[in-house]
Design a protein that fits this description.
about 250 residues, 9-stranded mixed sheet, about 35% helix, Rossmann fold, 7 helices, alpha/beta, globular
Length: about 250
């Protein structure tokens, strides 16, 4: 039996590229350089689904919630319309905030765990609690890079695999915002690409010597015969659209 599909609500992308949407329960990397609208797109996907009645949770580790809300308001997205169905878990204080939570629940005391493992336990507990209380179906983590820094993975492949499996066991569809790694990066630093169910890349493509065009490409989506071609990514009147790239 085919999995239900989660729409991105990017016009021309769901049907034209994903053949309907992202399979429910997938862990998807949303990768790109700074300025490619990764965070905006992740929030947009959860926002549009929340408007349709599908609850989400946006976890931010880099940008404070207030700053994020100001940004999306500037895009024409009315966060107040989805305040009950799309809460923001603000972890922008990073390690300091998680250690504070850990101290309150006694995770760091009396446990034979390294600090990163203890902080991960706290983070997972917080997300699980919100899952039980609010029943969110979509999860965005912004960003995967910041999360790795906070948790200080000792064995990157093993711990990335375990975390992705934990996300799948939650029964939600996850978007992990991530910086595009340098092209010379070693294969060991790209474990998340092998372990993720999907990869959507954003980039700025030069059109002339002085102008650039935002592009979107789905390079991987398990269980989907996706279109892997480059598409132009447009944003206008509060909506994203993907169009066939020319040139």
């Amino acid at each position: 039996m085919a999995r239900p599909l989660v729409k991105t609500f990017i016009r021309g992308f769901d049907d034209g590229v994903l053949r309907g949407g992202v399979p429910q329960g997938h862990v998807v990397l949303l990768r790109g350089a700074s300025g490619t609208m990764k965070s905006s797109l992740a929030y947009y996907v959860l926002y549009r689904n929340a408007l349709e009645g599908t609850p989400g949770l946006y976890v931010t580790l880099e940008q404070a919630a207030g700053s994020l809300l100001e940004h999306v308001a500037g895009l024409g997205l009315r966060a107040t319309q989805v305040s009950d169905t799309l809460p923001i878990l603000d972890l922008s204080r990073g390690r300091e905030y998680l250690e504070e939570l850990a101290g309150k629940v006694g995770v760091l005391a009396g446990r034979d765990l390294r600090e990163g493992e203890a902080l991960l336990t706290v983070l997972q507990g917080k997300i699980l609690d919100l899952r039980r209380r609010q029943g969110f179906e979509l999860l965005a983590i912004d960003s995967w890079d910041a999360l790795e820094l906070v948790l200080e993975f000792a064995d990157r492949r093993t711990e990335t695999f375990a975390f992705f499996e934990w996300l799948r066991d939650l029964g939600v569809t996850s978007l992990l915002v991530s910086e595009e790694p340098p092209s010379e990066e070693s294969a060991s630093a790209l474990e998340e690409e092998f372990l993720a169910d999907g990869i959507v890349r954003l980039r700025m493509a030069p059109v002339t010597e002085t102008s650039f065009q935002r592009r979107i490409q789905c390079t991987k989506m398990r269980s989907v015969n996706q279109d892997s071609d480059d598409h132009t990514l447009l944003f206008e009147n509060g909506r994203f659209e993907a169009a066939r790239a020319i040139g």
